[in-house]
Structure formats: structure tokens, C-alpha cells
Specification:
Blueprint (H helix, E strand, L loop, with lengths): L15 H8 L9 H30 L6 H24 L11 H33 L10 H20 L23 H35 L5 H41 L6 H25 L1 H25 L9 H20 L14
Helix pairs in contact: 2-3, 2-8, 2-9, 3-4, 3-8, 4-5, 4-6, 4-7, 6-7, 7-8, 8-9, 9-10
Length: about 375
């Protein structure tokens, strides 16, 4: 602990354990029941997160009704949640007594992955807010943004996420100023924690203000359109329904992440006096659950998305049963095995195609898409 007295001395020989002991954060060397529960529960949640968000991305990819800028951004949101699932998996597998074996570079990578996932989600929600503002002000369902611009926007989102995640490992840490070390993330600078938490909270405020303005505008516009034809009313209802779905996603995101960001902010400002370690685990679990609930929101709010989910699961089940049928010896005990087998496969393929193609674009009114 003598090195702690050299406040601004750069000593890169310290390992991860040194920083944890310096700030007083417990780093258990033996497995406790709580550690085992955290690992098992965390991995279970991460697995569900990964599979459910893959389902969302697959649904948007295969259903042509979702091939619009807003849904591409929601698919990127699912990609960020998928990435969060992978980041949390890596975090869970390198936490508790496993933390001791990490090098500083591995520790920075572990935390950078979580930071990248949050930054990607926040930047994506901000892009969705801007896109919705531009389209709904003109009472359109979808923007006229080209696919090329959407791809460039998504690339910019991930570029910002990667840069923000790598900032601490590139120099903004406390290796040269031990008195500035964070309690929650012992190798991070408290000044960086203040900057990062404040930036995200400010972005939350901007998004809430944008959606509040959109809500007020849509409500006023809806009253003026109440005298118009049923077609205009259906269109307005469709716009409002999609807006409500996105607003719920934003609301849940802010609810899940605000406690954690406030904890980081207090840690940066007050240090040990913030008692941030008392709430750290709960805030992390709440933030982790955010990436799990978005697919559930899509399922309950969007009928077309729900139908697509059912179709995907149905097709997977059918393919699984077809594969088992191919391995079954019963199929080859008939008098004409080849004829019977081909008839069965042909019938199943027809049913499968009929089921999976039932939601392809047809001439339905826009209001039936949600």
C-alpha cells in the first residue's frame, strides 16, 4: 500500500488485485454460495437474451413488411442487446474469484464490452428518436431515408460505441493517479465515470424531451384529423401505435439504466462516501434485464412481429420433426418406402411453405400491420 501514497506516480507494474485492494473492493478468492447463484442466474439470463434478440433480428430480416428504416434501427437495437448478452456472459465468466486471474488488459476488455453495448443502445435510441420526429411531424408511417443512409447511420453508431468503450484502456484511467480510482470499477478514473454517466443521462433527457414533443404534436394532430375519413384515422392510429411501442422501449430502457448511471455518477463524485458498492449488484441485474424485455415488448405490442415469431418457431419445430422422421426406421418398413417417404416429405414441405409464407406482403391496410 506504500504506492498509494504516490498520488500521481505512474506505476504500470500493479496488477488488478492491487487496485481492488487499494479502493477496498472485496475480491473473493473462494467460491461462495452467492457467487455460484450469480453465475448460474447470470448465464441463464444471458442465454435467453441472446436467443430472443436473434429471434427479433431474424423476424425483421425475413418479413418484408419490416424492411423500413425504423425497423432496421430496431434490428440494430436487437443487435446491441445481443451484444450486451455476449458482454454480460463474458462478465459473468470473469467475475468473483475469477477476477484475480485477469490481466489489466483483459479487465479493460471485459468492462469495455459492457460499455460498448450501453453506448450502442443509447445511440441507437437517439437515432430512432430523430427518425420518428422527422416522420411523425409530417404524419408519415415510415421515413424516406435510403438503405445506404441507414447502413451508414448504423456504422456510425457502432463506431461511437467502440470508441467510448476503448477510452479508459487508451489512457483515461487511474493508473497514474490512484486517488482518482473508482470504487465500482477500480481501474477507471472517477472523472471518466462522471463524464460517462453524465453524458448518458443527458442523452436520456434529450430523448425524453423529443418523445414528449412528438406525443403532444400527435395528440393535437389527431384531434384535427378526427373529422377526416376512416383511411386517415387508420393511418393516424397506426402511427400512434408504433410510437407507443417505441416509447415503451425507451421508458423501460431509462427505468433500467438510470439507477446504475446514478450510482456511477455518485461514485465519481463522492468516492467511498457514496456507498456505491451496496447497490452495484442490484443495478447491474436491472440493467441486464433491459436487454431481455425488448423482445417481450415487441411480442405484446406488435401483432405482425408476434405472428412472425410464431412462424419462425413453427418452421424450426417442423424441420426438427422432419429430421427425426428421416432417422426413424418406421419410414423404411413400408412396402414402398421410397414412394411413401417422398410423399410425406412433399406434404410436409408444402405445409411448411404455406405456414412460413402466410405473412408475406399482401394488400392489407396499413393499420393491420401493428
Amino acid at each position: 500500500m506504500e504506492s498509494g501514497g504516490r498520488g500521481n506516480a505512474c506505476d504500470y507494474s500493479h496488477n488488478v488485485t492491487f487496485f481492488y485492494e487499494y479502493v477496498g473492493k472485496d475480491i473473493g478468492r473462494d467460491w461462495r454460495v452467492r457467487d455460484c447463484v450469480v453465475v448460474v442466474l447470470g448465464l441463464t439470463i444471458c442465454l435467453i437474451m441472446i436467443l430472443s434478440n436473434i429471434m427479433v433480428m431474424a423476424a425483421i430480416l425475413i418479413n418484408r413488411r419490416f424492411h423500413f428504416p425504423i425497423y432496421f434501427l430496431l434490428a440494430n437495437m436487437a443487435a446491441a442487446d445481443l451484444f450486451a448478452g455476449l458482454a454480460y456472459t463474458n462478465l459473468v465468466l470473469n467475475t468473483g474469484p475469477w477476477t484475480i486471474r485477469l490481466s489489466k488488459q483483459q479487465w479493460f476488455i471485459r468492462n469495455a464490452l459492457v460499455d460498448m453495448s450501453l453506448t450502442a443502445s443509447v445511440a441507437n435510441l437517439l437515432a430512432v428518436a430523430v427518425e420518428r420526429h422527422q416522420t411523425i411531424i409530417t404524419m408519415q408511417l415510415h421515413s424516406k431515408m435510403t438503405n445506404r443512409r441507414v447502413v451508414l447511420l448504423i456504422l456510425c453508431i457502432w463506431a461511437v460505441a467502440i470508441i467510448m468503450g476503448l477510452v479508459p484502456s487508451m489512457g483515461w484511467n487511474c493508473e497514474c493517479q490512484l486517488s482518482d480510482c473508482s470504487i465500482i470499477a477500480p481501474l477507471y478514473s472517477r472523472r471518466y465515470m462522471i463524464f460517462w454517466a453524465s453524458l448518458n443521462l443527458l442523452t436520456f433527457s434529450v430523448m425524453v424531451a423529443v418523445y414528449a414533443r412528438i406525443y403532444v404534436y400527435v395528440r393535437r394532430k389527431g384531434k384535427r384529423m378526427s373529422q377526416h375519413t376512416s383511411h386517415h384515422l387508420r393511418h393516424n392510429e397506426t402511427v400512434v401505435n408504433l410510437m407507443k411501442t417505441i416509447s415503451i422501449i425507451l421508458g423501460v430502457f431509462v427505468f433500467c439504466w438510470t439507477p446504475g448511471l446514478m450510482t456511477l455518477l455518485l461514485d465519481g463524485i463522492m468516492g467511498k462516501d457514496s456507498h456505491a458498492l451496496t447497490y452495484e449488484k442490484y443495478c447491474l441485474i436491472l440493467a441486464e434485464c433491459n436487454s431481455l424485455v425488448n423482445p417481450i415488448i415487441y411480442s405484446f405490442r406488435d401483432e405482425e412481429m408476434r405472428r412472425t415469431f410464431k412462424c419462425i418457431l413453427c418452421c424450426l419445430c417442423r424441420r426438427s420433426s422432419d429430421h427425426q422422421g428421416e432417422q426413424s426406421p418406421i419410414e423404411f418398413n413400408t412396402l414402398h418406402p421410397e414412394v411413401g417417404y417422398h410423399r410425406k416429405i412433399k406434404g410436409q414441405l408444402f405445409q411448411q411453405k404455406q405456414s412460413c409464407d402466410s405473412w408475406h406482403p399482401i394488400s392489407l391496410p396499413p393499420s393491420q400491420l401493428y
